[in-house]
Amino acid sequence: MMMIQTLAGPLIALSNAPAKSDLDEIRVLPNPPLVKLTLDDIHVRRCRLAGDRVDAHGGCFRTADLDKLLRLAHGAPALIGHDRRSPAVARFFGGSIESFQGGRYIVPKFYWPRHHSAAEDLRWQIDTGILSEASLAFTFEQATCSICSRDIRECEHEIGKDYDGKVCFYYYDGVERVLEGSFVYRGAEPGTGFLHSRILAGGAPAKRLDTLTLKIGGRIYHALPSENEILLRNIS
Ligand SMILES: [Zn+2]
After folding, report:
1. For 66-98, how does the pLDDT look when each residue is reduced to its tens digit (9 = 90+)?
2. Is the per-residue pLDDT at 162 higher than 90?
3. pLDDT, position 45
4. Tally of structural domains, the chain
5. How far does residue 144's CA lie from ligand 1's centre (Å)?
6. 172 C-alpha vs ligand 1 centroid, how far in Å?
7. In angstroms, what is the span from residue 60 Cα to ligand 1's centroid?
8. CA of 193 to the centre of ligand 1 (A)
9. What are the backbone angles phi and psi of residue 123, rounded to the nearest 5°?
10. For the ranges 4-18, 192-206, 212-226, the one whose mean pLDDT is highest
11. Is 94 left (phi over 0), alpha (psi -120 to 50) or beta?
12. Residue 91 and residue 109: Cα distance in Å, rounded?
């Protein structure tokens, strides 16, 4: 079953003013804008999301997968506070892989229309640090244990525990899709661990999901079905 995890990181300013190259990247988005945008039509900012350093979930990307991840983020919509009932406010595009504190991170850009009635409110919320982080949901196939290279849900190693001087973490392997992103308030990211999606499991709801328990990194989780996904609660 495909797993969903979130990348989280701070919103950051552009190092240069938006340029024509930004417009070129926006024009080649999947489902591109219907009108020819100019630089006067959009605001652009960036966000530094997770990379090849171990994140708060105990997971990390392989450096070689970062390019693919950035490519997958290209075109993802951004919501506010993960509220899927409200329309998206911005869209991720382009960006780069950048070094930060000894690691490599994906830094996608995002744009939103200047002439939207709420555009200035969003700009102020972002630029004054009220909305301070972005999180992007992605799917991956396997959480590979850094100690034994098996699926960490099946091995005996525990995330964060020391094994002969090596602290256990896992790799996000088989990264497949980037879903929607969200702008969130600092600390709002719940960090509830993995979400398993029924939709991504091929459309057919898995059987007996309401009684499913899973072991992830030595902890036991109960799967709680919700509208489109299943929330895992740590019960160990
Ligand atoms: Zn292991």
Report:
1. 999 999 999 999 988 777 788 889 999 999 999
2. yes
3. 94
4. 1
5. 8
6. 14
7. 15
8. 18
9. -60, -45
10. 4-18
11. left
12. 8
185 burial type by CB count under 10 A (0-12 exposed, 13-18 middle, 19+ buried)? middle
Banded pLDDT at 52 (limits 50, 70, 90)? very high
Strands 59-60 and 170-173: parallel
Query: DSSP per residue over 174-188, as a string?
Result: S--EEEEEEEE-TT-
Host H or E run for residue 124: helix 119-127
Residue closest to 186 by CA, chosen among 143, 141, 133: 133
Q: What is the pLDDT of residue 223?
A: 55
Ligand 1: centre distance to CA 146 (Å): 7
- Ligand 1 centre distance from Cα of residue 150 (Å): 6
> For 110-151, how does the pLDDT look when each residue is reduced to its tens digit (9 = 90+)?
999 999 888 999 999 899 988 888 888 899 999 999 999 999
170 bridge partner residues: 59, 145
CA 18/CA 113 separation, integer angstroms: 13
- Tell me how far apart the alpha carbons of residues 48 and 11 are, in angstroms, rounded to a whole number: 7
Domain that holds residue 152: 3-234
For residue 222, give the nearest of 198, 192, 189, 200 by alpha carbon: 192
Distance 218 CA to ligand 1 centre (A): 10
The SS3 call for residue 103 is strand
> Phi and psi (nearest 5°) for 125?
-65, -40
